[in-house]
Amino acid sequence: VAIKDDNAMMCYRIAKNALSLRERFDLATQIPELYMNFYGRVAWRFEPFQAGVHKLRQCLDAGLSSGRSDIGLFCGLNEIKYALFSGANLKS
User: Fold this and answer.
1) How confident is the model at residue 1, as a pLDDT?
2) What is the mean pLDDT of the chain?
3) Which of 14, 21, 38, 63 could form a Cys-Cys staple with 32, CB 3.0–4.6 A?
4) Does 28 score more than 90 pLDDT?
5) Which three-class secondary structure string do you get for 26-92?
6) Counting beta carbons within 10 angstroms of the beta carbon of residue 57, is it exposed (0 to 12), middle (13 to 18) or buried (19 or more)?
7) Is the pLDDT of residue 44 over 70?
8) 44: DSSP letter
9) What letter does residue 47 receive in the DSSP assignment?
10) What is the mean pLDDT of residues 18-27?
């Protein structure tokens, strides 16, 4: 999904609202997709890389445990990329 700069802030607001709705309605089955789309595609423009590393790790675990290995592995790849960019230690 390509996001132009003028629409990036609107996408960020919509995604933050989606995160708050997930917490309100406890939609645990949609965690991998939601975290992948927010932390992997939108949040890196507005939040520090360190903030997304932990959530992408949760996305990896949730994706692999729910059978969505494609989303889980994509989150794992982004987690490694964010950890390297932010200078964090990589967990095995």
Assistant:
1) 52
2) 83
3) 63
4) no
5) CCHHHHHHHHHHHHHHHHHHCCCHHHHHHHHHHHHHHHHHCCCHHHHHHHHHHHHHHHHHHCCCCCC
6) middle
7) yes
8) G
9) S
10) 82
Q: For residue 80, which amino acid is it? A: I
Neighbour-count burial of 7, counting CB atoms closer than 10 A to its CB (0-12 exposed, 13-18 middle, 19+ buried): exposed
The stretch 41-54 carries a mean pLDDT of: 84
* pLDDT beyond 60 at 2: no
Reply yes or no on whether the pLDDT at 64 is more than 70.
Answer: yes
| pTM of the predicted structure, to 2 decimals | 0.74
Q: Which amino acid is at 51?
A: A
Alpha-carbon separation of residue 52 from 6, 17, 35, 40, 65 (angstroms):
22, 17, 9, 8, 20
Which residues, including other chains, have CB under 8 Å from residue 10's CB and lie 6 or more apart? Answer: none
Q: What is the DSSP letter of 92?
A: -
Identity of the residue numbered 57: R
